[in-house]
């Protein structure tokens, strides 16, 4: 166990949101359609037609009109930062517009001003599963190099506009998930005859170049800014001590670490070259791509951590568990949430150590939390002890990792206020410290109500992570 408090002064405690899951107002004030606006059943389904004619994210929790009330509540909990995203389609409704949309820019000016009024540092993701739909329809998404220019133009506008207000930026949310969710992550659709892997890795390459270009821009526009990449990361355990299980685990881990290897170290690792060769993947590079990537690596690593995974070489291992992106092998030693996501705080410590051993770069945990069904009792209270328990365990593991020597600069729990689930589109899957009166059928007053965890997290922040009881 670690003695004393390990969190440094200025540790960034807070919560994390994405525009498409909280704002609503999906076509208000000039906003265009994004990929998230046409996925009612959430990103797992990648279904374009609504099963029940409802799109929960179109109204979401109406953060667009209620951000003042919500930010006031975040301030009451003592938030030091709020991770949020800018909806690209509020700024460039079609992605390829000549001029930005002033009303969209003004909205984020107002939100940032409101945060700064309470000394809450905005941590801003440029693209959180909400690219303009027009860039998919007209250009085929990220497989097209033209997207690099559109993204760069968008980033330049927001870096210049908000340079006095925003210091912390993130480029693409969970960039590695494009491997599994090609539409929401990259706006990619396929034809039967396509070499799918080649298209996916070409799109990833285009995003790497875009990442490098905007990293460069960000530093030029504000030399004090810090810009990070963001991956969905959870360590991989071998199912047994069979050597081939460990080999599987290594390869599975590399599928994700490939992203940080390029974005943090600045070059394509040797193992991916073998993979490309054996899978007939030929990436089209332009002359300066590799030097750009090399010279413009990120300042910090943003991660979402929800679960660890298991790898096995044994075909008999078939029992599965759910995850936010895909199904995975069940780990018999772990409990799971109501949505079947396996809960593993030790895995957080393990993951942080793995990343820090490999890169020695600051890490920012920009997502972690428990999606659960909450009920209001007769006294009007929501006693979410299960959520408190989950967060307590994970923050304790984070403490251990910091004691191990890992440089973690902040922790933002996912969905500090209830929002629409990204994977399923549900509202009953709640992460918040603040309850929002809205159900899956769109009924409810949108009234906000503090849960028991609200008061608990307030104490955690007040004590800079020392008091977790
Ligand atoms: C992450 C996403 O994968 O998981 C978030 O970055 C998402 O957008 C979060 O909301 C939790 O997943 P879900 O499906 O429970 O909302």
Would you write up a description of this structure?
- By secondary structure, the protein is an alpha/beta fold.
- It has a single domain, classed as Alpha-Beta Barrel (TIM Barrel).
- 39% of the residues lie in helices and 14% in strands.
- It has 15 helices and 16 strands.
- The strands form five sheets. An eight-stranded parallel β-barrel has the order 1-2-3-4-5-7-13-14, surrounded by five helices. A two-stranded parallel ribbon has the order 6-8. A two-stranded antiparallel ribbon has the order 9-10.
- Helix 3 runs parallel beside helix 5 and helix 13 packs parallel to helix 14.
- The two termini are 16 Å apart.
- It binds 6-O-phosphono-beta-D-glucopyranose (BG6).
- The site of 6-O-phosphono-beta-D-glucopyranose has 15 residues, from loops.
- Reading off the top of the CATH hierarchy, the class is best stated as Alpha Beta
What overall geometry do the principal axes of the alpha carbons give?
globular
- Order of strands, main sheet, comes to 1-2-3-4-5-7-13-14
Query: Radius of gyration over alpha carbons?
Result: 21 Å
Ligands bound, unique: 6-O-phosphono-beta-D-glucopyranose
- The tally of structural domains comes to 1
* Major sheet details: 8 strands, parallel, barrel
Count the beta strands.
16
Terminal CA distance reads 16 Å
Instruction: Output mean pLDDT.
Output: 95
**Number of helices in the DSSP assignment:** 15
Uncertain segments of ≥5 residues (pLDDT<50)?
A: 46-51
> Helicity, in percent?
25-40%
Question: What is the structural class?
Answer: alpha/beta
